[in-house]
Design a protein that fits this description.
GO terms for molecular function: oxidoreductase activity. This is Probable nitronate monooxygenase. The chain is of the alpha/beta class and 334 residues long. It has 2 domains: 3-226 and 314-330, TIM Barrel; 245-306, no CATH class. It is built from 13 helices and 10 strands. It has helices at 3-8, 25-33, 53-70, 88-99, 122-130, 144-152, 176-184, 200-208, 230-238, 260-271, 274-285, 289-296, 320-327; strands spanning 14-16, 38-40, 75-81, 104-109, 134-139, 157-161, 191-194, 213-216, 245-248, 253-256. Strands 1-8-7-6-5-4-3-2 form an 8-stranded parallel sheet. Strands 9-10 form a two-stranded antiparallel sheet. Strand 4 (104-109), helix 5 and strand 5 form a beta-alpha-beta unit. The termini are close together.
């Protein structure tokens, strides 16, 4: 029996990426109903920014309740945690997760980015384990040391992220084919592969490399239920990995399909020293605001469209169920 499906209580070993602004209750429920694990991202269901931790938590509570009305299958909520501290935002959302009986949490960890600390905040992990909540850990900087630290903390599942991914990319420039066997051979807990998953062939490749499941983001954006703008979905369908451009920003790298903002980001990377380029581009991107504008609102002048290299295998906008069914043709036990 597949350990990922057994641990999470799902049909297929497919976990949906949180994608910051690009999830909502409808989309997450669709993934879970299709047999995967849907995950509410940090800004799930939102179109505006709030700086209030209380409002952030209340927004997440509303999304959780909506998911629970749309599916009776397991789903997850994202918590952003560092190696040794937890923000007030995370604390507030954690309280909501416990109160609303969310069965699984994705811990998006900083994993050694700013210090020698690996793994996740031990207090948060202890609280989750005390309440019987399953944990999937995805570190911004996946590595052997980080995976081993996460395993020692008692996490249920680890995500090995290759340089092929979209969104905030790791500084370690190891592609999916390199990082997956590296980490799978070093730990006993089940490992998911993130980065470059776009069709049944890549799912089969992930299993051949030691994965026990896949972590999928970009492939699920051009779906009927995803809240991304229609022009973004069509741009992904009409593009391949050759249309993506890589540029430096904080903490390390991003990539984007063509937009006006992307061209300025590339120019900064080309003309400025690395450290200055990172600062300048981070300011232009405005944290995740550039994603909200580019991908949620479809504003190609002020935003960016960050996706992974697996988009080459996307040829149509489809329902979530159809995408999951296609990907899982490569699942050995399907």
């Amino acid at each position: 029996m597949n350990r990922v499906t057994s641990i999470l209580g799902i049909k297929y070993p497919l976990v949906q990426g949180p994608m910051s602004w690009l999830t909502d209750a409808k989309f997450v429920a669709a993934v879970s109903n299709a047999g995967g694990l849907g995950i509410l991202g940090p800004n799930a269901g939102q179109h505006t920014v709030t700086t209030s931790a209380d409002e952030t938590a209340q927004r997440m509570r509303e999304q959780i309740k909506q998911v629970q009305q749309l599916t009776d299958q397991p789903f997850a909520v994202t918590l952003i945690v560092a190696g040794g501290s937890t923000s007030i935002f995370t604390q507030k959302i954690l309280a909501v997760v416990i109160a609303e009986h969310v069965p699984v949490v994705l811990l998006n960890s900083l994993g050694g980015v700013d210090s020698a600390a690996y793994g996740v905040d031990p207090a948060t992990m202890a609280t989750l384990k005390a309440h019987g909540i399953k944990t999937v850990v995805r570190s911004l900087q996946p590595s052997l040391k980080d995976a081993q630290a996460v395993e020692a903390q008692g996490a249920d599942i680890y995500v090995a992220t290759g340089f092929d991914e979209g969104g905030t990319m790791p500084g370690g420039e190891l592609g999916a084919f390199a990082i997956m066997p590296l980490i799978a051979d070093a730990v006993q807990l089940p490992v998911l592969l993130a980065g470059g998953i776009g069709d049944a062939r890549t799912v089969q490749a992930a299993f051949a490399l030691g994965a026990e499941g896949v972590f999928v983001g970009s492939r699920l954006i051009p779906t009927v239920e995803n809240p991304a703008a229609d022009n973004v979905k069509q741009l992904i369908v009409d593009s391949t990995a050759e249309d993506l451009a890589l540029f430096r920003t904080q903490p390390d790298y991003y990539r984007s399909l063509p937009t006006k903002l992307r061209e300025q980001l590339i120019e900064n990377d080309r003309t400025l020293p690395a450290a200055q380029a990172k600062l300048a581009n981070a300011k232009l991107m405005g944290g995740t605001s550039g994603m909200r504008l580019g991908m949620l609102a479809g504003d190609f002048e002020h935003g960016y469209v960050s996706v992974g290299t697996g988009i080459s295998m996307v040829h149509a906008i489809q329902p979530v169920q159809a995408v999951v069914d296609e990907l899982m043709q490569g699942y050995p036990q399907a």
